[in-house]
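Q: What does the assembled structure look like for these inputs?
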Amino acid sequence: MNADKTGYDACMKNCGFFGRVCLGSAALAAVLVAGVSVAQGPVRPAAQAGAAQMPRVVEKNGRWALMVDGAPYLMLGVQINNSSAWPAMLPEVWPAVDKLHANTVEAPVYWEQMEPAKGKFDFSVVDALLAGAREHKVRLVLLWFGTWKNGAPHYVPDWVKRDNATYPRVTGPKGEVRDTMSPFGAATMKADATAFGALMRHLKAADAARHTVILVQVENEINAYGSARDYSPEAVKLFEGQVPAELVTALHTKAGTWTEVFGAEAENTFQAWSIARYVEQVAKAGKAEYGLPLYLNHSLENPLAAPREGRLAWPAMTDHVLDIWKATAPSLDLIAPDIYMSQYAQYEKVLDVYARAGDKSKGGNALFVPESGNAAPYARYMFATLGHGAIGWSTFGLDLTGYANAPLGAPVVDDKLIDLFALNNEIVGPMQREIAKLNFEGKVQAVSEDPAVHSQNLEFGPWTATVAYGLRVFGRAMNAPGNADPVGRALVAQLGPDEFLVTGVSTRVDFRPTDAASGKHREFVKVEEGRYVDGKWKFLRIWNGDQTDYGLNFTTAPQVLRVTLMTY
Ligand code: DGJ
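A:
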């Protein structure tokens, strides 16, 4: 059970939901973040105080946090399969969520279901998600499958799908009609914005007192696969015209036509701008109803390839158009990468590109990975993602509805696969509030194993932590050989000048004075194993002897240490 769930339980038990003062982990963290002493002034009941505060994505000193109930919150997520949000499927969803120890579930809301006839809304599917999430004590990220889902219009209601005169599709380069909606369809945009607004209005009525829903995704992996852009007469006219002045200003570029300004990238840039402009209207309509944080997910191309080299001809939604999105869709709080690249260098590069320091109006971007592959190599990347200051990380498609993105006949999702990902949450879940807060303060460093480099150094001023992979538990070794499969991961957070929180999987962590010339050596004053419960460290035992003589060895047991160091 994760910390937020534990805190919620304790609060319910000790205080009742709107009961007496209850400082659980969330409230305690809120007090710490606000820098307010508990002893000062009246303290409102935590549940009420929290409920009054909207979830927010905030930035400070170049770092990001998702504030939930007034304190940094780390989304330890799972995204359910595309067709799993139906009430009849939820009994196959919640057991997987529980086994995963996830604290956040990402679930689609289907426009086709929600607005079966124009202006007639059915929120029963959303309400079933809300009820289930509350029962299982997890938060929700809702995914609005509207005009675009993986570029296609497959989730638009049939009254939109069938009426392409009112709701036009993209015209391809040869004049062919394509399986994607035109971003120049004013009626489509209006209909989508109206429906999304209705969803947000419903959430406000159904959830504003609870904040079960903490974040909403607008559309899903938009693109016009197969066509660089729309070639409809309206689109052609705009493409041949001038780049809008506000975009020129935001990008600090010269004025001119799209081709003059963007050269070989003109069509992609134009397409990205066209879609971003549309999505901004949808997002704005939703936010006007209920101001939850909003984001959009990007599909990716090889981030290590040079521009245009080996890239698709229609990459309107990848890292290299991030600035277009930032400038054109300010109602989105962040742009998030969906990472289906298991190679270390690619994964790291994507994290680098999407974690941008600074205010979002100046191009800053909070890192959130809403989809990460669910094959074994991906499990370790939650740690590298935290190491980039992320506000959340989620794997895709771990539910028990019988779908797996694998060859037909291959095993579907089973306990073995779920356990690989559950381990991260077992470790980090009980202290997610603490890690989110420490990360917001810049005190966390976390890494995943690079198969090409078998040890990594984490610098904490006078102390350096070395993370080494593939060593035997007992005995010193000069060179780490790496794990047979690169499954290792480690997290080190600084709690004080000589005090650290340390955890990991299949790795050894040790410390040394950064200044090697000082001739000083590391000594463990104390290595405590324990866990956070409701924001308080609960001591379990002291590690010594075999457990510390060669460094701090983390196996696949979920273990967390508080380490005090000295030199001699
Ligand atoms: C990325 C999409 O965003 C998801 O909805 C899903 O289609 C996965 N790709 C693949 O299963």
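The pocket of DGJ is lined by residues 82, 150, 220-221, 297, 338, 371, 396-397, 405 (CB under 6 Å).
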